[in-house]
Amino acid sequence: MTLFESMHNPEALKRLPADQLPVLAQEIRDFLVESCSQTGGHLGPSLGVVELTIALHRVFDSPKDPILFDTGHQAYAHKVLTGRHDFTNLKSEGGLSGYPSRAESEHDFIENSHASTALSYADGMAKANEVRGLSDRSVVAVIGDGALTGGMAWEALNNIAEKKDRRLVVVVNDNGRSYSPTMGGLADHLASLRMTPGYEQALDLAKNTLNRTPVVGQPLYEALHGLKKGIKDAIQPQMMFEDLGLKYLGPIDGHDEPALEKALRRARDFGGPVIVHVITQKGKGYAPAENHDEDQFHAPGPFDVATGEAKPGSKALKWTSVFADTMVEIGAEREDVVAITAAMLHPTGLNRFAAAYPDRIFDVGIAEQHAATAATGMAMNGLHPVVAVYATFLNRCFDQVLMDAALHRQGVTFCLDRAGVTGNDGASHNGMWDMSILQVVPGLRLAAPRDAERLRTLVREAVAVEDAPTVVRYPKGAVTEELPAIGEVGSMDLLRRAGEGHSEDLLIVGVGTMAQVACEVADRMADQGIGVTVIDPLWVKPLDEALIAEAARHSVVAVVEDNGRTGGVGDAVARLLRDHDVDVPVRTFGIAQEFLDHAKRDTILQQQGLTSQELSRKLTETVSRHTEGATDPALEDENA
After folding, report:
1. Is the backbone of residue 299 left (phi > 0), alpha (psi -120 to 50) or beta?
2. Catalytic residue of the set 167, 282, 352, 541
3. Domains of the chain, residue spans
4. From CA 432, how far away is CA 421, in angstroms rounded?
5. Helix (H) or strand (E) holding 43
């Protein structure tokens, strides 16, 4: 049995002789590389923390001492050391989550994988230990330097420093990167610390040397220790962590396991909040990852282990690529258009804009709140900013969209990648909230393109708006096939019209990519003699009032969207019709208001009943009841 195979829990790791730990670290790295080459996954971040994770589990007693990862990108070695060795179906239905998962292990505590949150969790857990009298327990938060660019982390640090005897260890995993190199003043400060000897290292050297000096050695050391503030100023830049009132240890080589154990034991035994600054290399131990300039294999798809080259995949055009090319075109036409990313230059496609217009791209770090308000300031001063984020991360800056961009009626465009069901990244990454939360924002305009051509058009329309914030949302993966309109209803696209000889039984409002499914439903139902009209509103907020008269001509209205049902476009359509005394029943079909397990997008849509076959069955029954004069007792709403 290999050392790797014997790791079923942290206790087995503690029993392992220290001289075998390098062998274990290499086995873990080999396993992760081989596994992720088959499934894809967050390889680079996890390779960088193998020794750190080993040291954490040897020093602390998980789960009694919770170890919290911010973000969960760096948790694969933690999974291995807590007994999870089957990575065969990583991030697939029935397999391990790509992040920590409370359902998987008692050693996992937080799983939202939205950055900059772990310190707040840790502060709360440490306070709970104090209130409950659990003085023998520690709480450990492992936070990447990229996550420290988020304001929430600094709110937490301010609170953590408030009491000096609360047992809380903050490990700053400093690899100089989030997805890409970490940006901003914090990054510069940490870089300066990386380039100079640590105060603790210098103090240890002085202690060891002077204590061996007869007669005068000990008094000299004590005097030296008393002058430690001056020493720190001489050895390295003023350290903001200690200025906050937090004990600081480091910098420490994050791949030197004995040094890590020593530092972590000191931090554990200190009895109060401690910052342990650890220097690691993302992608450590696998040359193709170490040498990958873009993101050091942050989250590759399947790849060839020998070369690191991606395995052949789909050649289909991706939504992100369409957006990226459109932004470059717009940038050439309008010098006032600038772009903002929250540490996701390549994932959102803005790297192409950055290459073309390097003076008009701003990476604000993992700080979506700042991105939204800074963009508002840019708009106030003559620019038109485009903020590109994943849809799930827009949740984090809702207040800034509402009270900064919208209240001030500023022309800021938010482009939401990975909208709707994203699938394999799990509950925290599904972009199923944006069309609900944005419905309440006065003046905001929201577009949902159904195909590549509509995405190009709607991004251009969005950046043309200067008196209100605009949002364009689009999904992950390959672009759906071109779906041309056959006519218009107001500003909306008409995609299907009930054929000659058919009554106007059903109007389907197909939102974004669900317009394709709506057309498939219409074709199925037409074969059964049911007259179906399909409309794509393009702009789902505000809705075009031409929808009112169109709905009044039909017996039933259905809305199909890949957003949570509550408060989404379906509710907006129903409200619009009620406000204009149109009593046509409205059925809404969307995502159940629940957190979804990780699985492929198509699988989740099928589970949610958002397939043409299932929708056709339900709507055929509904139309049959209403065209016969009956009343649908379910109030036509799939929310029930």
Report:
1. beta
2. 282
3. 4-191+245-290, 197-235, 319-473, 492-627
4. 7
5. helix 43-47
Neighbours of 233 (CB within 10 A): 12
pLDDT for 140: 97
CA distances from 158 to 155, 190, 251 (A): 5, 18, 21
The closest of 88, 464, 74 to 278, measured between CA atoms, is 74
Whether 207 is catalytic is: no
The per-residue pLDDT for 100 is 87
Q: What angle do CA 239, 173, 343 make, to 5 degrees?
A: 95
Per the structure block, which two tokens stand in for 479? Answer: 């672009």
Q: What tens digit of pLDDT does each residue of 376-403 get?
A: 999 999 999 999 999 999 999 999 999 9
> The tokens 């590549």 sit on which residue?
452
Distance between CA atoms of 188 and 176, rounded to whole angstroms? Answer: 9
Could you tell me which residues come within 8 angstroms of residue 327 by beta carbon, excluding any fewer than 6 positions away? Answer: 337, 339, 349, 350, 352, 353, 386, 459
Helix axes 199-210, 228-235, angle to 10 degrees: 120
Q: What are phi and psi of 35, to 5 degrees?
A: -65, -50
- 4-191+245-290 and 492-627 in the same fold: yes
Q: What's the pLDDT at 235?
A: 44
Catalytic residue among 58, 177, 284, 396: 396
- As a whole number of angstroms, the distance between CA 42 and CA 36 comes to 8
User: Each residue of 120-159: pLDDT tens digit?
Assistant: 999 999 999 999 999 999 999 999 867 888 888 989 999 9
Tell me: domain 4-191+245-290, CATH 3.30.2350.10, correct? Answer: no
CA dihedral 373, 470, 472, 182 (to 10 degrees): -10
Q: What is the CATH number of domain 492-627?
A: 3.40.50.920
* Cβ atoms < 10 Å from Cβ of 207: 15
What pLDDT score does 60 carry?
A: 97
Entry pTM: 0.81
Q: What is the reported pLDDT for 629? A: 53
Torsion angle in degrees (nearest 10) through CA of 419, 423, 426, 431: 10
Instruction: Write out the two tokens for 274.
Output: 């401690």
Q: 388 near 443, Cβ under 8 Å? A: no
What is the C-alpha to C-alpha distance for residues 37 and 310, in angstroms, rounded to an integer? Answer: 9
- pLDDT attached to residue 250: 87
- Coil, helix or strand for 115? coil
Residue 343 to residue 523: CA distance in whole angstroms: 44
Q: Residue 442 has what pLDDT?
A: 97
Determine the pLDDT at residue 201: 56
**DSSP class of 196:** S
**pLDDT value of position 342:** 92
Residue of 57, 210, 202, 79 whose CA lies nearest to 140: 57
Q: Count other C-beta atoms under 10 Å from residue 201's C-beta.
A: 16
* pLDDT value of residue 360: 97
Q: Taking Cα atoms as reference points, which of 98, 120, 106 lies closest to residue 32?
A: 98
Residue 476 a catalytic site member: no
Domain 319-473 falls in which CATH fold?
Rossmann fold (3.40.50)
- Is 466 annotated in the active site? no
Residues of the chain with pLDDT under 70: 112, 145, 177-240, 314, 426, 499-502, 629-640
Query: Tell me: the pLDDT tens digits for 170-204?
Result: 999 988 754 455 555 554 555 455 444 454 555 55
Contact (Cβ atoms closer than 8 angstroms) between residue 444 and residue 429: no
Q: What is the DSSP string of 322-333?
A: HHHHHHHHHHHH
Q: From the candidates 111, 368, 550, 636, which is the catalytic residue?
A: 368
CA angle centred on 233, ends 227 and 234, rounded to 5°: 90
Q: Are 619 and 606 in contact (CB under 8 A)?
A: no
